[in-house]
Amino acid sequence: NLQAVEVDKWVKSVCRYCGAGCGLYIGVKGGKVVAVKGDDKNWNRGYLCVKGSYLPKILDAPDRLKYPMVRDGNKWKRISWDKAMNLMVSKFAEAIKKYGPHAVGFYGSGQSFSEESYLANKLYKGALGTNNIDGNPRLCMASAAVGYVTSFGKDEPMGSYDDIYHADCFFIIGSNMSEAHPVIFRLVMEQKRKRNVKIVVVDPRKTLTARNADLYLDFVPGTDLFILHAMAHVIVKEKLYNKDFFDKHAVFKKMGPDNKPVNVTFDEYVKFLEEYTPELAEQKSGCPKEKIIQAARWFATSKATMSFWCMGINQRTRGVWANNLIHNLHLLTGQICRPGATPFSLTGQPNACGGIRDVGLLSHLLPYGRVIANEKHRAEMEEFWGIPKGRIHSKPGPTAIELFTKFAEGEIKCLWVVCTNPGQSLPNLQKYRKGMASGDTFLVVSEAYHPSRTSELADLVLPAALWCEKEGTYGQSERRYQYLPQVIKPLGEAKSDFEVILTFARKLLTALGREDEAKKLFPYKTTEDVWNEMRACSKNTVYNFWGMTRARLIKEHGMLWPVPTEDYPAPGTLRRFTAKYGDPLVKKFDPKAEDISFYGNPADGNRAIIWLRPAVGPAEPADKDYPFVLTTGRLIEHWHTGTMTMKVPELMRAAPQAFVEINPKDAQKLGIKTGDKVRLTSRRGSIVLPAKVVDIPRPGVLFVPFHYPEKLINDLVTDAFDALSKQPEFKISAVRIEKV
Ligand code: SF4
């Protein structure tokens, strides 16, 4: 029981793992971290899940990387920081001098601190003039981000966890919250015990989340767009919509023949929905139509409906459209911008929202809602950063898959991967691993542990300070920014990525003969200096968090942007887009707004969009050669590629190895029993795993957790991606299974 350990002091901080962003206290004794306990004044009210509770054990694992190491043939050689930095700078500078700025790249992480990602973004886009910089949220949240922008004009959820206390219906689709976001799900279940709330779960696996539902809709993976349309069909047919709301706050649009959006009428929308009957949805998805009708009625008629979704919706070739269809239901019924009524995408990483989407560390973004493709936004950032006009390249850069393809093909000569593990987490993995291992290019990996499945492919590895060994800011799922202090010294010679990026930026610009710019663009002494620049950068945007000084973040238990002034009360804005329920910026950006203002096209009065998106299936459905659908996901005990949770003996005892879940009906037909070795084969690869026969996946579906480094299930997964968000379809790949 770590919480019972005696400590010298407790220091307020945040969990290192998921995007729920639980507040916690770190217990320090004799200069060592010995315990954590939940922060009872933060949103999580003192609760932590099993992963968070064992956090201290990730810090001094035997494979922590303590020194910079350089590849020497098949061996690794320890070198000094000076030599490591000089080697890296000379390689990057040489590539830039010879081939121009697009010869170098950066792959960042939703686990880095915001200040670190901001620096990297400024270096690449602002100083070097290349948009070859993307981050791992491209693999998990890109469709949610583009979904918000295409439906409402701006990214990020409008609601907050506070809505859980007000919702009467929870619509959970494509999310196993009970394992992936356990503390948020705990709050939902608490409401179920206390009040007469309804929980609807839509998922092809009967997860623990689904088992707690009042209504469970299971379906053939990839057919959920039919279910969402059929719900809209029922809402329209039974006149359960809120015409006053959408007349005032939404427009209907479809893509025209020239691939430009065109406005349509409500009647045209009704006509579009005609074919998407519950009967058609049942035929396509296998989900009984009565359940779809019931879900639609509860969604529309509850006092307040809150929807949650995550990777099951986002990791899809139609992920953006699926996001749009969820928003459609909220806009159609007016279940939005009121306490308890809101769409709410869940986030996988602790700082994917704050540090990547908000900071703009994706190849098409600039900080705080600005985009590369917008000339005015580029000009704003050029002025703000004090760089020459036209420095920011006008073409969005390559997204994750495209970035690693360019690296594999040698177009990008030098790539720096920070705080993430693409050697395990990319889809169609062997293709990209081969590219990363190529001898003609130069791969630098900043990592806390070595070897990881990525650092083993690197030319140079840099030891990274971990979690409470450094300071910075995280922004979690509900727009809450939280400060994490440095509590202990980094292990060995490990350094914070902030220090390393800053040093590299100055040295690289100097090596390129731009010493003056190095001083002018990167003058910072502390992370707070960068934080203050970020606050100023957000000022004239709907993200405005000028009022979140470092001192306030240290004192408060997180604050939700917008927080435009230093006297704006904590915890900030619980509900955006609505003046009545909180957003202080509604009037600023739309003086005519009454109580609600979205940020759509000004020609449409900034209204939100109800999209007519046809239901389209996955890139690779099951067929006669590969008759099963492989879906990958998470277990409660482990987090992402397992680099941290697999250092915790208690978690490893609970979930020691990879397996494949198979439905008992399929197992019986194939003569497979629990523990049998089975081979899974897709068009891209093959893997042998122990079988787990269990009534969780529906017949025809196989589930494998993607955490385990010795069993790279992503070898089998398709790298087809969404045309709008460029997020790959991890959730659906066709495979066959046979007993070995
Ligand atoms: Fe950490 Fe997420 Fe668990 Fe909270 S729910 S303790 S943030 S892993």
Automatic annotation (TrEMBL):
<keyword id="KW-0534">Nitrate assimilation</keyword>
<dbReference type="GO" id="GO:0016020">
    <property type="term" value="C:membrane"/>
</dbReference>
<keyword id="KW-0479">Metal-binding</keyword>
<keyword id="KW-0813">Transport</keyword>
<dbReference type="InterPro" id="IPR006657">
    <property type="entry name" value="MoPterin_dinucl-bd_dom"/>
</dbReference>
<dbReference type="GO" id="GO:0043546">
    <property type="term" value="F:molybdopterin cofactor binding"/>
</dbReference>
<comment type="similarity">
    <text>Belongs to the prokaryotic molybdopterin-containing oxidoreductase family. NasA/NapA/NarB subfamily.</text>
</comment>
<dbReference type="Pfam" id="PF00384">
    <property type="entry name" value="Molybdopterin"/>
</dbReference>
<dbReference type="InterPro" id="IPR050123">
    <property type="entry name" value="Prok_molybdopt-oxidoreductase"/>
</dbReference>
<keyword id="KW-0411">Iron-sulfur</keyword>
<dbReference type="GO" id="GO:0042128">
    <property type="term" value="P:nitrate assimilation"/>
</dbReference>
<dbReference type="GO" id="GO:0030151">
    <property type="term" value="F:molybdenum ion binding"/>
</dbReference>
<feature type="domain" description="4Fe-4S Mo/W bis-MGD-type">
    <location>
        <begin position="8"/>
        <end position="63"/>
    </location>
</feature>
<keyword id="KW-0249">Electron transport</keyword>
<dbReference type="Pfam" id="PF04879">
    <property type="entry name" value="Molybdop_Fe4S4"/>
</dbReference>
<keyword id="KW-0560">Oxidoreductase</keyword>
<dbReference type="InterPro" id="IPR006311">
    <property type="entry name" value="TAT_signal"/>
</dbReference>
<keyword id="KW-0732">Signal</keyword>
<dbReference type="InterPro" id="IPR009010">
    <property type="entry name" value="Asp_de-COase-like_dom_sf"/>
</dbReference>
<dbReference type="InterPro" id="IPR019546">
    <property type="entry name" value="TAT_signal_bac_arc"/>
</dbReference>
<comment type="subunit">
    <text>Heterodimer of a large and a small subunit.</text>
</comment>
<keyword id="KW-0408">Iron</keyword>
<keyword id="KW-0004">4Fe-4S</keyword>
<comment type="function">
    <text>Catalytic subunit of the periplasmic nitrate reductase complex NapAB. Receives electrons from NapB and catalyzes the reduction of nitrate to nitrite.</text>
</comment>
<keyword id="KW-0500">Molybdenum</keyword>
<dbReference type="InterPro" id="IPR006963">
    <property type="entry name" value="Mopterin_OxRdtase_4Fe-4S_dom"/>
</dbReference>
<keyword id="KW-0574">Periplasm</keyword>
<dbReference type="GO" id="GO:0045333">
    <property type="term" value="P:cellular respiration"/>
</dbReference>
<dbReference type="Pfam" id="PF10518">
    <property type="entry name" value="TAT_signal"/>
</dbReference>
<dbReference type="InterPro" id="IPR041957">
    <property type="entry name" value="CT_Nitrate-R-NapA-like"/>
</dbReference>
<dbReference type="GO" id="GO:0030313">
    <property type="term" value="C:cell envelope"/>
</dbReference>
<dbReference type="GO" id="GO:0050140">
    <property type="term" value="F:nitrate reductase (cytochrome) activity"/>
</dbReference>
<dbReference type="InterPro" id="IPR006656">
    <property type="entry name" value="Mopterin_OxRdtase"/>
</dbReference>
<dbReference type="GO" id="GO:0009325">
    <property type="term" value="C:nitrate reductase complex"/>
</dbReference>
<dbReference type="GO" id="GO:0051539">
    <property type="term" value="F:4 iron, 4 sulfur cluster binding"/>
</dbReference>
<dbReference type="Pfam" id="PF01568">
    <property type="entry name" value="Molydop_binding"/>
</dbReference>
<protein>
    <recommendedName>
        <fullName>nitrate reductase (cytochrome)</fullName>
        <ecNumber>1.9.6.1</ecNumber>
    </recommendedName>
</protein>
